Amino acid sequence: MMSSPHLPLDTVDRTLPLPSHHKTLALRYLTLRLIVSLLVLTVALIIPPAAILTHLRQLSGQILRYRPFSFYSSTRAASEMPSPFASELQVAQLAVQRASILTKRVFHEKAKGTVDKNDKSPVTIGDFGAQALIIAALQHNFPADEIVAEEEAAQLREDPTLRNTIWQLVKDTKLEDASAEKLLGGSIADSDSMLELIDLGNSKGGANGRIWTIDPIDGTKGFLRGGQYAVCLGLMVDGHVKVGVLGCPNLPADDATRLTADIGTNQTDEGRGVLFSAVHSEGATSRPLTAGALAEPAKPISMRPLHDLAKATFCESVEAGHSAHDDQAAISQKLGITEPSVRMDSQAKYGSIARGAGDIYLRLPVKATYEEKIWDHAAGDLIVREAGGQVTDIYGKRLDFAVGRTLANNKGVVAAPAAVHRKVLDVVQEVLKITPSS
Ligand SMILES: Nc1ncnc2c1ncn2[C@@H]1O[C@H](COP(=O)(O)O)[C@@H](O)[C@H]1OP(=O)(O)O
Fold first, then answer.
1. Binding-site residues from annotation
2. Which EC class, in a word (predicted)?
3. Looking at 22-26, 76-80, 224-228, 377-381, which range is the least confident one?
4. Which pTM was predicted?
5. Which residue's CA is minimally distant from atom 10 of ligand 1?
6. Does residue 104 belong to any structural domain of this protein?
């Protein structure tokens, strides 16, 4: 009987002898299968199945995370799934790094010792310049995203001299790494484009979609005196902060440096500059904010475990008009803290407690009507929470970034390690006479 490709398999006559070259092929095939089976058995006996799975996950993660940039360095362990915000984090870090370079130039060229400290023009120049550079990077990479930023360009449209001063700085400020600079979109085309970019920061904010928050120079007084200030960038998705980056050019680069006072006032740049970052559910990190910052691996940071609240270091604003120093002193005393508070400007306070250089940050309201701005808190709030902290307002509510350009649903800020936050909040409420119903 002839076998036919159209016959069902079980009708083929298997008793027919195979041609000899078929026999050789069959023999080779069986030998190969035997060798493969033996290999699989050996591997399975030596390496536990979980390890094989982990290896496969690592391999797929590495392939998915591959970026053709030499400076790219993810903070996630290789065994984890790729971060959904990897490119946002990378762009945000580089954008903050580039803007920080501009602010340092402004300080050294236009502020340091040369002007009356009442002259706010270095702040204006640094603010507009840093905002333009950050928005240019965001616009290049995520053109559909909205932006809530502090500055608008109307003042520059009326002042050609100021506009030109800023443009000269903006067009000359670049990252050292050419591929990183290219990733951010390179130079802005001209000064008109710069003004248009600055004005893109006019989103109303809210609970829907992707919205970036920018404070180009947070802590203007600190910036002017050569003390603490921060370049702040956060990404919110549907009202929740997912990525936060803080460039703190004047904080000590070494995470282990404990807070004493406004460290770094008018010192050189040597050993200073930190880039704090956090991605929701992925932890917080720090790395030196040097020119080639992202070449350095990011180090995970965490809040200091506080076994004895009396030994806490608490920090607060320098400006008495920004937070109630007297209430904060009373709280500190009730907690048994004997060390004086550490006063510093800007969101550098959030970064400092997140890396365990300090422990508690209190920002108790001075004016009942003041609404905190989302760009003053978005990045810092995420960085502290991802480092093991809790951040609430004085009523114990999480900061609500979903209601517009301000934190209209919150009053004040209480940030502390999660394990002791409730205790700190109890004392805050006792001193402020807040009852659960108030
Ligand atoms: N009455 C106030 N209460 C709280 N924060 C304020 C008040 N007035 C201004 N600020 C904000 O404090 C921030 C600086 O905080 P810090 O004291 O921690 O450095 C500034 O961005 C400033 O916002 P703005 O730029 O709108 O004036």
1. 150, 215, 217-218, 376
2. hydrolase
3. 76-80
4. 0.82
5. 322
6. yes
